[in-house]
Amino acid sequence: MLLGGTLLSAQNRFTISGEITDAETGEDLVAATVYIAGSSLGGMSNTYGFYSLTVPVGKQVFVCSYIGYEEFREEIHLKKNKYLNIKLKPQSTRLEEVVVRAERTDKNLSSVEIGVEKLDVSSIAKIPVLLGERDVLKTLQLLPGISTISEGSAGFSVRGGSVDQNLILLDEAPVYSASHLMGFFSVFNADAIRDVSVYKGGIPANFGGRAASVVDIQMKDGNSQRFAGSGGIGLISSRLTLEGPIVKNKSSFILSGRRSYADLVAVGTGLLESGTSLYFYDLNAKVNYRVNDNNRLFLSGYFGKDDFGFEEFGTDWGNATGTLRWNHLFGPRLFTNTTFIYSKYTYGFNLDDDLRMSSGIEDFAFKEDLTYFINPEHTLKFGFNSTYHSFNPGELLTGDGEFAAFGDLVLEQKQSVESGLYLSSESSSGSIPEEKVWEAYGLVLLYPCKN
């Protein structure tokens, strides 16, 4: 009898699913709202613009909305599962009045995203900047609960935590050193960033255990409709961004670069001697390919470096990341994201080209994240991840010069494997999925290798 009741219930409900994108650029729209008009059934798109909504059979008025875009509304007669991709058009509206609405007194207790701040590029562009440089991390310092560690620095502290307790991700790859020019600027070029999410508390289980915060930064996918370019010349650096379709509506790319030129100006004006290096650069690249409605591939990378050299002394440090992601739909309710991640950070200094010290860390990671949309009120997220860490504590190479008598000093490298499983349940009772309660269960295991 129980089985029969379950099957009967399933036959009376079907699922509407698909992707929500910008009609002009093809960019995925994150956290767009979908719902059935006149009912309490609703949901939101995920990081990749995918949504899934299970509703009763029959005629339904399906609505999709997103701030700054025209509303999509369509009457649907459901007789089976339906895959519906939605392209929202940007909306330009003249405001004639201001509406102020109050929230429930227990809103802070029922919201799933307690302690979460979300920023998009348009918000960052409105904030005054230092020396013409839009800076993602400096913008975060203006948010409640986040403070700077020192005046003018890109480093930040969340609720009293230290700088190294913040996990900073760029397309899911960890960035270990997120600043240029001794901390004055961040390594993130705002022209290549789509959106930023900051978790100051109640960090979701898929990020693992973190003492302070998680900053999740997503790069743009690139304009899949037409070629476009943008750039700028600042007092500190210049930047150039190119994006466009490889195959229209199927694949696109974005390439964004930035370089400072303090060394070129200083040498050219005679303030510094020729051969002096004083610069940083960033390079962001991303390609995505839509295989079909159920499969999509993303390949992205970041390369950045600081190089300071004065006469016989020089120092440099930099990051390199790479992310390969595969989105796959096993059905209208099960969304999976398989990710391969590479991240490397190196630091070093040299003296008279005869003495060189270096250290760093290198990661190889694999992640499998699954989201199952049980119904509009319940979403289940689960998965696992494993990261291989390789630590280089330091090496001192003396070469053949005047320091050769001291000999080389190489500390033994260390390796470890960090793995974890997680399961989280998301529940809602309202049409707009802001009123949710999380139940998260996580397990993190650390396996030190032989060394």
Q: If you had to describe this structure to a student in words, what would you say it looks like?
A:
This protein has 451 residues and is mainly beta. The protein is 7% helix and 54% strand. It has two domains: 2-88, Sandwich (Immunoglobulin-like), CATH 2.60.40; 107-448, no CATH class. Strands 18, 19, 20, 21, 22, 23, 24, 25, 26, 27, 28 and 29 form a twelve-stranded antiparallel β-sheet that branches. The longest helix has 10 residues, at 2-11. It is globular. The model is unreliable at 1-10 and 430-442 (pLDDT under 50).
Indicate the topology.
Layout: H1 2-11, E1 13-22, E2 33-36, E3 42-44, E4 50-56, E5 58-65, E6 72-78, E7 82-83, E8 86-88, H2 107-110, E9 116-120, H3 121-125, H4 136-140, E10 146-148, E11 156-158, E12 166-170, E13 173-174, E14 179-180, E15 185-186, E16 193-199, E17 213-219, E18 228-233, E19 237-247, E20 251-260, H5 262-268, E21 277-292, E22 295-310, E23 313-329, E24 334-351, E25 355-375, E26 378-397, E27 409-410, E28 414-428, E29 436-448
Parallel strand pairs: 1-7, 1-8, 12-17
Antiparallel strand pairs: 1-4, 2-3, 2-5, 5-6, 9-16, 10-11, 12-13, 14-15, 16-17, 18-19, 19-20, 20-21, 21-22, 22-23, 23-24, 24-25, 25-26, 26-27, 26-28, 28-29
Net shape: globular
- What portion of residues belong to β-strands? over 45%
Point out poorly predicted stretches.
1-10, 430-442
Total helical segments:
5
Mean pLDDT value: 81
Measured distance between first and last alpha carbons:
59 Å
Number of strands: 29
Kindly name the structural category.
mainly beta
How many domains, as an integer? 2
Largest sheet: 12 strands, antiparallel
